[in-house]
Amino acid sequence: MLKYIFVICCFCCYLNADDSISQDLEVGSDLLFSIDQETEKDLEEGSGLLNEFDGAPAEEYEELENEFDGAPADEYEELENEFDGAPADEYEADLEEGSEIFDEFEGAPTDEYEADLEEGSEVFDEFEGAFPDEYEEGSDLVTDEVNEVEQEVASELGTGGNIIEDSSYSEYEIPVYIDPLGNLRSSYLSEESYSYFRSTFFYRTQYFFKDNNVNKRNVQNEFNAKFEFTPKLGDFMFHIIPEINIDDFDAASGFFTLTHLDDNGEKRSVVNLAEAYVETQFNSFDISLGKRIYSRGAAFGPNPTDLINPFDLIDPIEGFNISNDLKIGVWSAFLRYYLPGTDLIEFPAITLIFVPHFTKNRIAFEGSRWFLDLFDGFDQDEIFPARTLENSQWFFSTNATIRGYDISLMYYEGLNHFASQEINPLVIVNFFDQIRVVGGDVVTTYGALKLFLEMTHTWSKTNDTDDFFTIVVGGSYLWGSLFRLNDQLDFVVEVLFNRIVTSESDNANVIVADDDAGDRALIFVLSYDYDTKLTVQALAQITLNENHEWTSDFFEFDISYKLHSNLSISLTAQLLNGRNTDLFGLFKDNDSLFVSLEYVF
Questions:
Q1: Beta-bridge mates of residue 535
Q2: At residue 519, does pLDDT exceed 80?
Q3: Is the separation of the CB atoms in 411 and 438 below 8 Å?
Q4: Burial, 421: exposed, middle or buried (Cβ in 10 Å; 0-12, 13-18, 19+)?
Q5: Neighbours of 277 (CB within 10 A)
Q6: What is the C-alpha to C-alpha distance for residues 535 and 527, in angstroms, rounded to an integer?
Q7: Beta-carbon contacts of residue 285 (< 8 Å; ≥ 6 apart)
Q8: 100: helix, coil or strand?
Q9: In angstroms, rounded to a whole number, what is the distance separating the alpha carbons of residues 305 and 587?
Q10: What distance in Å separates the CA atoms of residue 573 and residue 17, rounded to the nearest whole number?
Q11: What is the mean pLDDT of the chain?
Q12: In the chain, N or C: fewer CB atoms in 10 Å?
């Protein structure tokens, strides 16, 4: 009985629920219809859009959703943060008013952005497309990318604007108290001229331990300043390097080079034009005209193939100063032609140099510490060559890299920069012999090992002097991080053969070297860079005669410290010993210690 009553109750509930559900559905249908009408009304009045939908927005929608798949309609005035398509033309007004540009988008910016970029608005941080031409006038330059490697933009260095040779100092800012001249220069010279201006100041105080018979001075001071201007005019680069020489031992006197074309004065000029030439490139040619200093040779120290420029040998003991600073510029014409290379021969080139006027080596003058009066009691005279085409100098060379070997061959015809001596009755005549020289050099490397060979053969055109052969052979090895991280040790060994006579001269009155004089030498150089600031160097040269007997020796020790990238201080000692038949023995009383300062800005 209870079971039937329960079934009847459930049936009645079902009927009531069906009526309620029907009623609710009718109400819901009205509600849905009302919502649909209100939604349509809202859409027509510009109410907020759905956040996301699959279909394309209707044309009457004025406000855009934050993100959608389709392209934005023309009527939309507000831009979405990110979209795939290109911005519509209507956005021009918005961009001109300085609105923010999308941080990232896939398409390339349209032409309408030009005005916005010209007004200095923010450029997109990153985008995949290429910059259009309009961006060339943009306020900021975008970092270049070459071969997918970003190139860092070079910045001017501190107040000095100096380009530092040693890149390890590039992170330092040059304080004003260390670079006052650089700071002064930056105040008066335009920023564009910094790369065209460089100057070097060098000061040395030299102390001699002993007196000599010529000059009783134990201390002498010298100062040199060079200013290098390298302006560019079109395809022409000008090199103008005036210098100032001041000392207290009368090595610099007068203004000879300002009144004469050559540099053949007995002493240095107080004001001198070290170099002044113009160079240009034309297709495969390098061309220069003017007063210039050249460098060539593979060996350390004496380079027998380096014959173009004379040397200033008022201080004849060169030591570590074997460099362009000791050379005298010559007025010349230079031409180099680069030949096409092959798989076997790389970087071939030929070089021709013409020097119309002869310039001799400058030697120690009478009364100086380094003067030697070897012909006491004799009057001396000098025959200086006339300025003729016959007395001009020609230099020709060719060089190339062949399977890892740098090879150069050269030919020189001109005058010997060193004077020869001829004995006439009670008169010593200095003359400059006409010579021909052939030679060459070879350099190669095997890892950290460098090997070099340089040699020449010289003979007299007039047979007034003996012919001789010179060869320098050696090598160097470089160790890195030997005793500490990033230190560097370089060791050089050289063997020098010189003055090997191959024929007797026709002039029996010419003075020749003593038979016991050293004509060969062993040279050792050790250079240790503790870090980028401290360098220690040692040089030893032992001279032998043809019987391999010791004749003289020379030692030099140098400690150099960079107080900053543009300022360095050095302490150097020179020790000489030997027989009176050799150069080092003749100056054995000139052992010295000197301190030097070099400032570059």
A1: 529, 560
A2: yes
A3: yes
A4: middle
A5: 20
A6: 7
A7: 335, 336, 337, 338
A8: coil
A9: 27
A10: 117
A11: 76
A12: N
Element (H, E) at 206: strand 197-208
State both tokens at 541. 């040269």
CB count in 10 Å sphere of residue 178: 19
In the chain, domain spans: 91-150, 190-600
Antiparallel, parallel or unpaired: β 393-402 and 405-415 = antiparallel
Read off the pTM.
0.69
CA distance 553 to 522: 10
Query: How is residue 440 written in tokens?
Result: 């060459």
Strand (E) or helix (H) holding 181: helix 180-188
- Judged by DSSP in three states, 189 sits in coil
Which of 75-89, 158-172, 262-276, 586-600 has the least mean pLDDT?
158-172
Kindly state the greatest CA–CA separation across the chain.
Answer: 168
DSSP state of 193: G
- Provide the CATH topology of domain 190-600: Porin (2.40.160)
Cα dihedral 284, 408, 463, 302 sign: positive
Q: How far apart are the first and last CA of the chain?
A: 118
DSSP-assigned states of every residue in 502-541: EE--S-TTB----TTS--EEEEEEEEEESSSSEEEEEEEE
**What tokens does 70 get?**
């389709």
* Parallel/antiparallel/unpaired status of strands 232-233 and 312-313: unpaired
Which token pair is 88? Answer: 């519509």
With H, G, I as helix, E, B as strand and everything else as coil, classify residue 207: strand
